[in-house]
Amino acid sequence: MDKSTDKLGASQVIFVGCGRMGSALAEGVVNSGRVKGERVVCLDADAAKASALAKKIGAQTQLLEGFEGARIWIIGVKPNDVASVIRSYASQFESNDTVVSIAAGLRLGYLRNLLPPGVGLVRAMPNTPALVQRGVTGIMADDKEDLTPIRALFEGVGHVVELKAESEFDALTGLSGSGPAYIFTAIEALADGGVLMGLSREVARQLAVHTVAGAAAMVEADPSVHSAELKDRVASPGGTTITALASLEANGFRHALIEAVRSAALQSRAMSGEE
Ligand SMILES: NC(=O)C1=CN([C@@H]2O[C@H](COP(=O)(O)OP(=O)(O)OC[C@H]3O[C@@H](n4cnc5c(N)ncnc54)[C@H](OP(=O)(O)O)[C@@H]3O)[C@@H](O)[C@H]2O)C=CC1
Ligand SMILES: O=C(O)[C@@H]1CCC=N1
């Protein structure tokens, strides 16, 4: 274990809000082995939801008593609930603690005003593939917060990108935060196409998911090869692929994806109160 994972492993990680993103992170973090289940606490307005998750991952449902190490609070409630949740825990935050907000649209300045002085603050935007350790998370510290253990936590569940300007969170949210939903829709539509052309649903699903995973793995394997080159290698002159690519262009495929990222980013910006 290196120093960064050491520091994380010695921490208590508290998930406030164990919904879709909070539970994916909690499960991914424990499965990564970087934090032991016994050091993880699951809290939710719905106690049964927190208990079920805690049971699944060997975590706790109450803060660890007498714990003197650093504590990382992951605030995983809806953006509209973040202020009231932070206020309700404010008296329990200590100077060794770091609060991590994963809420879309909420700026560090807004969050800082909710916290008692001396408490660390980090903004993060993960995505749900964290559940299977294939997430990607943007992180940024407020002030001079030590990002080492937070980086280690999110690296346990995938790739981490450290942002330098907070305005980049809007674009990152539109691309990777919301992005899994675009790809799930693409997988569903590809499978639908296969079913339309006579495949069984299960065979079509397998073909769609492995095609997307395989193409992504190729792009990941060699960053020096542009994805356009990989696309060209599939398209034979006068063949099936170029015929399909022409159809995608005619139907605004690229434009649809660009606009998806842009509109989600603009929504993230609007949620921050900036237009
Ligand atoms: N879903 C995603 O892919 C991503 C989400 N995010 C961010 O993560 C956050 C959560 O989103 P998501 O997981 O989708 O939402 P969910 O509604 O699935 O989860 C939020 C959870 O918080 C619980 N909750 C509400 N109030 C409190 C409270 N006072 N104390 C403790 N728990 C509470 C909710 O309980 P109940 O349902 O009973 O109200 C629910 O279980 C949002 O801020 C979102 O912007 C970030 C990246 C990706
Ligand atoms: O849809 C949302 O607002 C959240 C943030 C990114 C993904 N889900």
Automatic annotation (TrEMBL):
Protein name, UniProt field: Pyrroline-5-carboxylate reductase
Pathway: Amino-acid biosynthesis; L-proline biosynthesis; L-proline from L-glutamate 5-semialdehyde: step 1/1
Record-annotated Pyrroline-5-carboxylate reductase dimerisation domain positions: 166-271
InterPro entries: 6-PGluconate_DH-like_C_sf (IPR008927), NAD(P)-bd_dom_sf (IPR036291), P5C_Rdtase_cat_N (IPR028939), P5CR_dimer (IPR029036), Pyrroline-COOH_reductase (IPR000304)
Keyword vocabulary terms for this entry: Amino-acid biosynthesis, Cytoplasm, NADP, Oxidoreductase, Proline biosynthesis
A Gene Ontology molecular function term of the record: pyrroline-5-carboxylate reductase activity
Cellular component aspect of the GO annotation: cytoplasm
Homology family: Belongs to the pyrroline-5-carboxylate reductase family.
Subcellular location, record wording: Cytoplasm
Principal EC category: oxidoreductase
SUPFAM superfamilies associated with the record: 6-phosphogluconate dehydrogenase C-terminal domain-like, NAD(P)-binding Rossmann-fold domains
Function text: Catalyzes the reduction of 1-pyrroline-5-carboxylate (PCA) to L-proline.
HAMAP family named in the record: P5C_reductase
Species annotation: Bradymonas sediminis
Domain (Pyrroline-5-carboxylate reductase catalytic N-terminal) ranges: 13-105
Enzyme Commission designation: 1.5.1.2
Gene Ontology terms describing biological process: L-proline biosynthetic process
Domain of life of the source: Bacteria
Predominant cellular place of this UniProt entry's protein: cytoplasm
Any Pfam family hit: F420_oxidored
Enzymatic reactions: L-proline + NADP(+) = (S)-1-pyrroline-5-carboxylate + NADPH + 2 H(+); L-proline + NAD(+) = (S)-1-pyrroline-5-carboxylate + NADH + 2 H(+)
